[in-house]
């Protein structure tokens, strides 16, 4: 069964957890990864891996010394992703468990953290604070956010929480070649890095 069909089925089963019916476009994936440096042996963590569009792109960019952990709350999507990428540590878990999941897998710090988490994840857990707590001081956190909805309370809360957890928060240009159009929030200088 195609990734698109599985994504749609899983969205129908749990729309607040899957939160999308379409996979991210190549343009959005490129914008999400552009702020990161992947040279050397980075530890890269992906939140909300879904069908693996970002996972695929990361695996093309990362060298053999890199460590890649993909966290996906939906066990069906996580299972498919693990089958397709045996070299990636795929964990079926809630992003709210981020520090515990990383500790369980022997990860002490993260150099790059990329997120496609929906607003419902931010409502359920302090995602920016969790991200800042696991990032290396020089690490970068990127988060996809939907364009045109920036004035809604969840979007305002997301930006406010990022500014509390990070010393530097910027945004990309709108990625129009995605359905729906989106932007990337880029956070650096974690205030709570361990």
From TrEMBL:
Name the chain's protein. Answer: Phospholipid N-methyltransferase
From which residue to which does the signal peptide run?
none
Q: Which GO terms describe its molecular function?
A: methyltransferase activity
Q: Name one Pfam family in it.
A: Methyltransf_25
Q: What residue stretches are annotated with the Methyltransferase domain? A: 44-116
SUPFAM superfamilies per the UniProt record, alphabetical: S-adenosyl-L-methionine-dependent methyltransferases (SSF53335)
Q: Which GO terms describe its biological process?
A: methylation
Q: Which UniProt keywords apply?
A: Methyltransferase, Transferase
> Is Lyase a UniProt keyword of this protein?
no
Species for this entry: Pseudonocardia kunmingensis
């Amino acid at each position: 069964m195609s990734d698109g069909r599985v994504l749609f089925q899983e969205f129908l089963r749990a729309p607040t957890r899957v939160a999308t019916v379409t996979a991210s476009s190549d343009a959005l994936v490129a914008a999400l990864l552009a702020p990161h440096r992947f040279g050397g042996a980075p530890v890269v963590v992906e939140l909300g891996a879904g069908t693996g569009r970002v996972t695929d792109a990361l695996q093309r960019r990362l060298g053999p010394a890199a460590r890649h952990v993909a966290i996906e709350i939906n066990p069906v999507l996580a299972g498919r992703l693990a089958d397709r990428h045996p070299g990636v540590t795929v964990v079926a878990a809630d992003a709210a468990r981020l520090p515990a999941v990383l500790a369980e897998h022997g990860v002490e710090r993260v150099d790059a953290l990329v997120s496609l988490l929906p607003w419902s994840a931010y409502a359920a857990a302090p995602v920016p604070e969790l991200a800042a707590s696991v990032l290396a001081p020089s690490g970068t956190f990127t988060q996809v956010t939907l364009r045109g909805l920036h004035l809604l309370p969840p979007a305002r809360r997301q930006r406010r929480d990022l500014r509390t957890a990070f010393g530097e928060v910027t945004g990309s240009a709108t990625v129009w070649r995605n359905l729906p159009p989106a932007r990337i929030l880029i956070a650096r200088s974690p205030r709570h890095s361990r």
